[in-house]
Specification:
Order of helices and strands: EEHEEEEHEEHEH
Oligomer: single chain
Shape: elongated
Strand order of the largest sheet: 1-2-3-4
Structural class: alpha+beta
Helix content: 10-25%
CATH class of the largest domain: Alpha Beta
Number of helices: 4
Largest sheet: 4 strands, antiparallel
Radius of gyration: 19 Å
Distance between the termini: 38 Å
CATH architecture of the largest domain: 2-Layer Sandwich
Number of domains: 2
């Protein structure tokens, strides 16, 4: 069953790009890939626990075991962090992370940097397979004008990130980033295009 709920926004300045604070009767933690709890401010997988939360997926014991641990923590699959004031920032989905030589790269981090470039109107980043690195970041970019080059985009990212976040998978200029009605980037279409450059979005 479902029920409506109306919740006041927490007091204080919420800042930008956060999803608010934790609701009462809920606990949260952020864990690394080994399952260790991370301190406030660090980025990892968001886990939630509450006596009012679901006990599992109906008729799906394996899916329940994968999502909820023995202590009742639900692994959301969201990559997030909490700031010192308790505001939560969701930055990516775990399944969207790009694995580069053992490092985990959040596409949204590179996308935010790309969008700060005055010559870029929109951008999306996906991982492409690579025999040596596992995956490499590739950017799809919508230019504000036609003068921006692949080299300039690569150099811009290289000047602001660690080497494993560089766009070694390349840069491709397209007319529009595919998105859902809710504005979410449809990365599966971009991965398909990366595998088959002749495919249309």
């Amino acid at each position: 069953c479902c029920m409506p709920a109306s919740l006041p926004f927490p007091q204080g300045n919420p800042g930008n790009n956060n999803v608010g604070k934790l609701l009462s009767n809920f606990e949260m933690k952020v864990i690394d890939k080994e399952g260790k709890t991370l301190p406030i401010g660090e980025v990892g997988q968001l886990c939630l626990r509450s006596p009012t939360f679901m006990i599992g997926y109906l008729g799906k014991p394996q899916a329940t075991a994968e999502a909820i641990d023995d202590e009742g923590w639900y692994r959301t699959g969201d990559i997030a962090r909490m700031d010192s004031k308790g505001f939560i920032y969701v930055t990516d989905r775990l399944k969207e992370l790009i694995k580069v030589k053992g490092y985990q790269v959040a596409p949204s981090e590179i996308e935010d940097i790309l969008l700060s470039h005055p010559g870029i109107d929109d951008a999306a980043v996906v991982g492409i397979l690579d025999e040596r690195a596992g995956e490499l970041p590739k950017a799809f970019v919508v230019r504000k004008n036609g003068s921006l080059t692949e080299h300039q985009v690569k150099e811009f990212i290289a000047s602001k990130t660690a080497s494993y976040k560089h766009l070694k998978g390349g840069v491709e200029f397209i007319d529009k980033i595919p998105k859902s009605d809710a504005g979410k980037i449809l990365r599966r279409f971009l991965r398909d295009k990366a595998r088959n450059p002749k495919s249309k979005l």
